[in-house]
Amino acid sequence: MLISEVFGHGVEDLTDDAQSDRRHKNCRFRGSACTKSSTTDPIGICSLSDGVEAASLCPFRFLESDRIFTDAARLSFGPDASFGVFPEVRILKIPSDQEGGRDRKIGKVDYILGRVESGEITDFAAVEVQAVYFSGREIRTAMNYFLAHGALDIESSDRRPDFRSSAQKRLIPQLQLKVPVFRRWGKKFFVVVDTQFFRSLPSFSSTTQANSELTWLSYPLKKTGSNYTIQEPMIVYSEWDEVQNSLREGSPPEPSEIVHELQTKLTGPQRTRPRILRVNR
Questions:
Q1: Which of 63, 161, 183, 279 lies at a CB distance of 3.0 to 4.6 Å from 29, suitable for a disulfide?
Q2: In angstroms, rounded to a whole number, what is the distance separating the alpha carbons of residues 210 and 157?
């Protein structure tokens, strides 16, 4: 897949607004400077694309039009609800091991949505956003070529999204830490991904909205003209145990298969045989 968006605009977008955001290293989805990898020299690549649909490389890419927040709030609080968006809220507390010391907080949730009624928070829900990593060589060189020439160097701009690693090494550990807390509280927990990411996940059973412990908002990032836009999400309601089991790395074999493998190694070539030790009396 090729680089598809740089500093918030499609690579085919050569308008004055697009050129200005690239010169100033501005993220149009945040409405402020891009800070990806560096505050002074950011890597402003938002997504990769097959030419039709993009895969987001940056969680801030999903902030377009605040849609993820209004969609999650509608499902959590109902229509016409007012709510605040609270970024990076820590939900777990580790008591200090020193008398009089301060407790530490961990388990940072990307966003908490707090329902506001008459100036008071009356309910809340969590929104976790996951973009994809890519495999292969660094991508800054390809970005700098585009910024200098206004066009991609196709050979240096091709990368493969690593959905498996992004799910197993990043998303699942985060969910294991946070989802059980919100399940205990009886609060909604949403995971925002793009449709390419969601399609790469192992299949798991869905449930009803009332029984959902983990709600997926899977957004297409479709090409429209020279840019990409976030589209209507696919909403998938799921139970945490079903998701956790499906995303577990591999499945265990029968014990007899392990015994057979060990026996093969024990009687195999001398150079690959295990050391044999004895327990002292």
A1: 63
A2: 44
The tokens 């993820």 sit on which residue?
68
Cα–Cα distance measured from residue 65 to residue 48, given in angstroms and rounded to the nearest whole number: 20
**C-beta separation of 205 from 243 below 8 A:** no
- Integer Cα distance of 36 and 134 in angstroms: 15
> Any idea where the domains of the chain sit in the sequence?
2-247
Q: Tens digit of pLDDT per residue, the chain (281 long)?
A: 999 999 999 999 999 999 999 999 999 999 999 999 999 999 999 999 999 999 999 999 999 999 999 999 999 999 999 999 999 998 887 776 666 667 666 678 999 999 999 999 999 999 999 999 998 889 999 999 999 999 999 989 999 999 988 998 899 999 999 999 999 999 999 999 999 999 999 899 999 999 999 999 999 999 999 999 999 999 999 999 999 888 775 666 788 988 998 899 999 998 888 888 888 87
Sign of CA dihedral 247, 164, 169, 62: negative
